């Protein structure tokens, strides 16, 4: 029941999701704003307990995510398409990658590209090492935290969501990822609990990130003397302007707002990257990147499994960096996962995983090497340690770093512009994702809902920023990552079960006794093999041979008390026989006229009769479950009857097996209407 129905306000919100979510979100934000120190203190105790005593859960979970995705990418399951077998991608590769990248990292790249390497480099824990070793460690750990492991977290959620949404035609919702395990229970309270958790986690993650992004923008504008100081008043003005732009972008939809901004931003990011690479210590950067890749590959497994249990002096650093990052990426994964799933319809699993794991990781490595290693080089050779001293001020560190490059003011404006666009795309895509969760992926929602999400983000982030409650909310977000890491492991179990069934379903072969041709009428068949059909002859075959075969089948089905129907279309010519069922999918076998372009080599071949036109037609079979059909022009009437019956026999055999229930249920197409 819609919660706004009684007030005659059109809404697509689902009360079982939106009411408990709003109570929890607003309640936590109010407590964090009114009692920031007490709340942050209590949540920090819980967070520290988890990081110290249960960090191994994060380590093992992230490791399993990486192994699972690499295996899926390399296996035959990688050929499965995220959608129907004939579906095509909704976006070009460049637009898809741009949007994926903007949602996955966004502001974080600008905030930490200089700050993280410098903080590792200047950390007292590594003070006993030489400057060269500290620089190598800084690059290695930055690669580790922003590399394959981070994107594997996003990839697992995104893949599960895209697969169950587009392959099973379930809602683009986390509850759908449990269908092989919970079946129709996901429609009830269990599904609502999962979506409430996802909505709250998404809201908290976006709110804290936007809050920190506003502080960095304010700091940059002060550096450029555009604003006189960093104060709550100016931060309020910044939020008001940027959230308004984000709402405007969200209202225009993904195909316009987010897509255009993401494409613009990725170009701006590449321009900034090339500028720093060209005018910074270029030779040093290229050499350190090359060496850094080798060190990362050589250290991959030791980094992955290292819990620092034998190194007490680095354990606190491990909790504050690696475990915090894993928790942070996991807490963000519902938001990023839903968004990248939304833009990935039509991609194969191999294409999805390789793009999500490898391409963003490689770009992150290049980005972090250019900015982080430039900062370290400037610190050691020009700044006389000044950047190291500023490492604990990440808000202004990027702009201080730019002081050591030519055209400082111009590049600073470019950096602020990039941060602003990342801010808008993060808020924009966040609004879309939260509305999608709260409405069970409603395709069309009233604009006031989009505006409402934007206003809620702005008001609560400013309230927490003013009261000093962002730290408490960040701790809350990190705590929720623990249960969600277990949920993600269940996603893998569910997805594995579904992929096995999927592969077996589409690769199930026919028995040897179903081959229809015995060798009769071989002269006629040879004549058909070496001839080409035009549209008229193909349509005539469908109207005569196919129709006669289907009519005889219709009669015999009726004799055996099976209710069948014949449907036909004239443009293009097609005939199908359908057997309807109430609980399972209908059985459909059809034949349609299909055009095909003939190659010039075949047209000019003297040893074949050839065709006078480069476009020929042939009768192609098709099926209700969207398996690929084939040319049936060589079939006689009886052979065509035999072919229909072998598919019907296969259909009966499949529906008799309980494990195929999720593929054959007729309710699958209308499950959440």
3D structure, described in words:
It is found in: Cell membrane. This is Choline/glycine/proline betaine transport protein. InterPro entries: BCCT_CS, BCCT_transptr. The protein is mainly α and 673 residues long. It has two domains: 16-506, Amino acid/polyamine transporter I; 512-670, no CATH class. 67% of the residues lie in helices and 5% in strands. It contains 27 helices and four strands. It has helices spanning 15-34, 36-53, 55-74, 93-104, 107-112, 115-122, 131-146, 148-166, 179-182, 189-223, 232-252, 254-279, 282-298, 300-305, 312-342, 349-357, 359-381, 386-389, 394-402, 408-438, 447-467, 470-507, 522-529, 535-559, 600-603, 637-655, 661-664, and strands spanning 564-569, 574-579, 587-597, 615-623. A four-stranded antiparallel sheet has the order 1-2-3-4, with helices on one face. Strand 1 and strand 2 (574-579) form a beta hairpin. The longest helix has 38 residues, at 470-507. The radius of gyration is 30 Å and the shape is elongated. The relative contact order is 0.14. Mean pLDDT is 83; it is low at 3-7 and 668-673.
């Amino acid at each position: 029941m819609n919660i706004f129905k009684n007030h005659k306000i059109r809404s697509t919100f689902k009360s079982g999701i939106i009411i408990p979510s709003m109570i929890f979100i607003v309640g936590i934000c109010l407590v964090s704003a009114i009692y920031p120190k007490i709340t942050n203190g209590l949540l920090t105790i819980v967070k520290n307990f988890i990081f110290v005593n249960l960090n191994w859960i994060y380590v093992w979970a992230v490791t399993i995510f990486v192994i699972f995705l690499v295996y899926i990418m390399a296996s035959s399951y990688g050929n499965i398409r995220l959608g129907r077998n004939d579906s095509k991608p909704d976006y070009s590769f460049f637009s898809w990658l741009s949007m994926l990248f903007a949602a996955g990292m966004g502001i974080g790249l600008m905030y930490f590209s200089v700050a993280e390497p410098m903080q590792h480099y200047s950390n007292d824990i590594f003070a006993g090492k030489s400057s060269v070793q500290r620089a190598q460690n800084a690059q290695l750990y930055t690669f580790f935290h922003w590399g394959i492991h981070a994107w594997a977290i996003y990839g697992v959620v995104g893949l599960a969501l895209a697969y169950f949404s587009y392959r099973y035609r379930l809602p683009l919702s986390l509850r759908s990822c449990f269908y092989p395990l919970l079946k129709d229970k996901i429609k009830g309270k269990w599904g609502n609990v999962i979506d409430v958790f996802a909505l709250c986690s998404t809201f908290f993650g976006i709110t804290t990130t936007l809050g920190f992004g506003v502080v960095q923008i304010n700091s940059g504008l002060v550096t450029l003397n555009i604003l006189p100081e960093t104060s709550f008043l100016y931060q309020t003005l910044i939020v008001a302007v940027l959230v308004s732009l984000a709402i405007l972008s969200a209202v225009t939809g993904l195909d316009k707002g987010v897509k255009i901004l993401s494409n613009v931003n990725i170009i701006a990011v590449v321009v900034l990257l090339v500028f720093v690479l060209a005018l910074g210590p270029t030779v040093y950067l290229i050499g350190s990147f090359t060496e850094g890749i080798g060190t990362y590959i050589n250290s991959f497994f030791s980094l992955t499994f290292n819990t620092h249990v034998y190194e007490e002096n680095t354990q606190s650093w491990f909790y504050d960096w690696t475990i915090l990052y894993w928790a942070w990426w996991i807490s963000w994964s519902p938001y990023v996962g839903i968004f990248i799933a939304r833009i990935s319809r039509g991609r194969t699993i191999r294409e999805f995983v390789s793009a999500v794991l490898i391409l963003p990781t490689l770009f992150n490595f290049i980005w972090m090497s250019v900015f982080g290693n430039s900062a370290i080089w400037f610190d050691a050779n020009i700044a006389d340690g000044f950047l190291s001293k500023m490492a604990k001020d990440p808000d202004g560190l990027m702009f201080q770093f730019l002081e050591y490059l030519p055209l400082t003011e111009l590049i600073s404006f470019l950096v602020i512009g990039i941060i602003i666009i990342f801010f808008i795309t993060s808020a924009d895509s966040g609004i879309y994702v939260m509305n999608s969760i709260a409405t069970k992926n409603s395709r069309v929602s009233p604009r006031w809902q989009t505006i409402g999400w934007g206003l809620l983000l702005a008001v609560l982030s400013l309230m927490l920023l003013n009261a000093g409650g962002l730290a408490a909310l960040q701790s809350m977000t990190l705590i929720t990552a623990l249960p969600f890491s277990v949920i993600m492991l269940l996603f893998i179990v569910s997805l594995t079960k579904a992929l096995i069934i999927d592969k077996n379903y589409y690769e199930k072969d026919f028995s040897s006794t179903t081959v229809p041709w015995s060798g009769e009428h071989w002269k006629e068949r040879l004549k058909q093999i070496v001839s080409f059909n035009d549209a008229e002859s193909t349509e005539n075959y469908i109207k005569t041979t196919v129709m006669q075969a289907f009519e005889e089948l219709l009669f015999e089905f009726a004799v055996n008390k099976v209710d069948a129907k014949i449907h036909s279309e004239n443009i293009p010519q097609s005939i199908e026989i359908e057997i309807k069922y109430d609980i399972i999918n209908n059985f459909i076998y059809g034949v349609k006229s299909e055009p095909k372009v003939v190659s010039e080599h075949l047209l000019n071949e003297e040893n074949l009769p050839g065709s006078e036109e480069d476009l020929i037609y042939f009768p192609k079979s098709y099926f209700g479950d969207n398996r690929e059909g084939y040319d049936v022009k060589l079939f006689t009437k009886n052979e065509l009857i035999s072919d229909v019956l072998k598919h019907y026999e296969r259909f009966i055999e499949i529906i008799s097996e309980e494990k195929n229930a999720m593929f054959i249920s007729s309710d699958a197409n209308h499950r959440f209407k």
